Amino acid sequence: MLHLEEMPQRVKAFFEKVEPTWKNVSVEKYEVMTGGYSRLLARADVAHDGVVSTFVLRGDPPADKSLLYTSRVQEYELLRTVGDAGVRTPHAVYFDATGEDLGTLAIVMDFSQSTSFLPYVAAGNSIDGLNIRLAEAIASYQSIPISALPASMERPASWDAYMTKRINSWREASNNHVESLPVFHYVAEWLDAHRPPPAPLVLMHGDFQCANVMVTADGHIEVIDWELAGIGDPREDIGYFKAVSQASPPDLLGDDGIEGFCARYRELTGLNELQVNPATVAYFLVLGVVGTVEQLMQGGAAWAKGENHLFNSVFNLSSVLFGQSMWLDFLGQLSEPMKQIAAAANGGK
Amino acid sequence: MFSRPTTEQLLAGIAEELRTVVASEVQTETTKIMLQQIDQILMGCSRRAAHEIAWVHEEAEKIGALTGKPIGKPASLHLEDVLAWYHQVSSLLSDEVGAAFRSGDQGRIDAVKEVLDARSAIEMQVLGALELVGRG
């Protein structure tokens, strides 16, 4: 996908194959896009029958340039599912399942006309009300029945089993790394000792952060990049969004936005105030990042051992360093509120 | 060997040249982003180079005092040996974290947290300001 001299011809041949009724297919423009840390991204303007359609190609990088190892097949199936359910996300239209046509396994999606969140903010647009739109966006994909999700997605046996596995991921991330990481062990022990009230398992985006949301022309939130999606606790994506916003403001779930967000989210999902409140969101701010942290640590370890040469693998370790400081700080502040929530959930004070 | 300019100075100097001279010549967006990432990494390397071995020893002493276990010493002051030793000492701290929580002794947990906070403060010093260049 990075070979600019051959890709226009490949793209043209691909569209002639998947859309045999299109006439006079040509590729007006093909350019590599920035923004994807783990996948190759490119934009193609494809002309046919007198119209020009713009698509985004999202494909796997070469093995030695790969930061994350995730399934394009599952991602494509999920994109179709969430798109059909009415979730605001760019529609996945085609899939090169073998890589024979586009040079690598690649999903071809409609090009979104929405504005990425951070540039939207940088341009001076108002963020008033976006915390409410954020609640609606999260609730929209979490309302999809688990039975409708791709069969390849792992179904946890129970909420407790899921949480135990998730918390243990922190220990494993340290044990599997090239050096021992005591902060990860502390995080695991603390999370285990302060579990929140349970909630029904749902579709989880897995990398729900400001870089993966866009703002539509009518002010709604569009969600992109589903490659880390799974089935898990509904509060994880919320916590993860807040976690990344700490490092890359503005935080829609900051002091001004969190209560309104929680109220709208509870209204849409039926969860109660003990399950969804600023403290449980903060709990999942820490727990919710473990999937990404694991992947980033694996990338960093592989780079240290000379097994991959993707510079992002090194750069991304900076995010984990920043995160460690934030997690320690948050856990210190959360101990008492989480104890109070647990006591209230158990019927006492 | 020439010891000055120091490694800290050299790496900071390279970062400065990349930032002020090379960056303006770069045309593609992807390469510009990579250059900004390289700048952040180089500045972190610069800060680490000046203090890394001392920081590791200082933290190891705290871990030894916390756990009451012998921490030994590195086979040499060559960085690879120091870091292999640091990994062993860090494993003692990781074990102590689990033991502290299992004991339920809040004072023991707080003592662990204090060492971890100090470790994190050093890491933030290395990191400097985090800018997630290339996202969004």
Task: Outline the structure in words.
The complex is a heterodimer of chains A (349) and B (136). Chain A is built from twelve helices and ten strands. By secondary structure, chain A is of the alpha+beta class. The longest helix of chain A has 29 residues. The N and C termini of chain A lie far apart (59 Å). The mean pLDDT of chain A is 93. Chain B is mainly alpha-helical. In chain B, helix 1 packs antiparallel against helix 2, helix 2 crosses helix 3 and helix 2 packs antiparallel against helix 4. The mean pLDDT of chain B is 94. Chain A: It holds the Pfam family APH.
Q: Can you give me a brief rundown of this structure?
A:
Chain A: It holds the Pfam family APH. Chain A is built from twelve helices and ten strands.
Return the average pLDDT of chain B rounded to an integer: 94
Distance between the termini of chain A: 59 Å
Question: What distance lies between the first and last C-alpha atoms of chain B, to the nearest angstrom?
Answer: 46 Å
Return the CATH class of the largest domain in chain A. Alpha Beta
- Helix-strand sequence of chain A: HEEEHEEEHHHHEEEEHHHHHH
Write out the CATH superfamily name of the largest domain in chain A.
Aminoglycoside phosphotransferase (APH), C-terminal lobe
Dominant shape of chain B: elongated
Residue ranges of chain B: pLDDT <50 for 5 or more in a row? none
Q: What kind of sheet is the major sheet of chain B?
A: none
Helical fraction of chain A equals: 40-55%
The sequence of SSEs of chain B as H and E is HHHH
Helix count from the secondary structure assignment of chain B? 4
- Secondary-structure-based class of chain B equals mainly alpha
**What would the principal axes of the Cα set say about the shape of chain A?**
globular
The count of helical stretches of chain A stands at 12
Biggest interface between protein chains, with counts per chain? Answer: A-B, 37 and 37 residues
- How many separate structural domains of chain A? 2
Oligomer: heterodimer
> Total domains of chain B, how many?
1
For the secondary structure, the number of strands of chain B is: 0
Pfam family, one (chain A): APH
Domain Aminoglycoside phosphotransferase (chain A): 53-265
InterPro entries (chain A): ACAD10_11_N (IPR041726), AGP_Transferase (IPR051678), Aminoglycoside_PTrfase (IPR002575), Kinase-like_dom_sf (IPR011009)
